[in-house]
Amino acid sequence: MCGGCVGTEYPERGTTCLEGGSFLLNFVGCAQCGRRDFVLLGNRAAGLHGEDEIVTYDHLCKNCHHLIARHEYTFSVVDDYQEYTMLCLLCGRAEDSISILPDDPRQMTPLF
After folding, report:
1. Pick from 16, 28, 74, 112: CA 20 to 30 A from residue 55's CA?
2. Which domain of life is it from (predicted)?
């Protein structure tokens, strides 16, 4: 992975968890060839690790195939919530949790 290709290493992305794609605003250009072009996705792998679904892939320079970053996305169900995480030098780090119930108990206001 290459810190010279990104503006900010592991930027905080709040709840934006990407299963695919790239955060191009953080890509300043390839440190190897010096060009700033689209980013290719390579070596994509998806599978289960226990009850977690894990998706990994590499961000590669379109021109010289230099490895910019490795991306990891996870999905799991914990109790009544879908949990998402993302960790990537280019795309950043993020976590999200969404209730699988019709009404999210965390968003309910007390009646009294």
Report:
1. 28
2. Eukaryota
Among positive and negative, which fits the CA dihedral 13, 16, 17, 21? negative
Tell me: the pLDDT tens digits for 2-54?
A: 889 999 999 999 999 989 999 999 999 999 999 999 999 999 999 998 889 99
Residue that is written with structure tokens 């060839």 in the block: 33
Q: How far apart are CA 75 and CA 78, in angstroms?
A: 10
| Pairing state between β 81-88 and 92-99 | antiparallel
Integer-rounded Cα radius of gyration of the chain: 17
Q: Please, which pLDDT band fits residue 105 given cuts at 50, 70 and 90? A: low
56 burial (CB, 10 Å; 0-12 / 13-18 / 19+) is middle
Q: What's the rounded Cα separation, in Å, for the pair 45 and 4?
A: 25
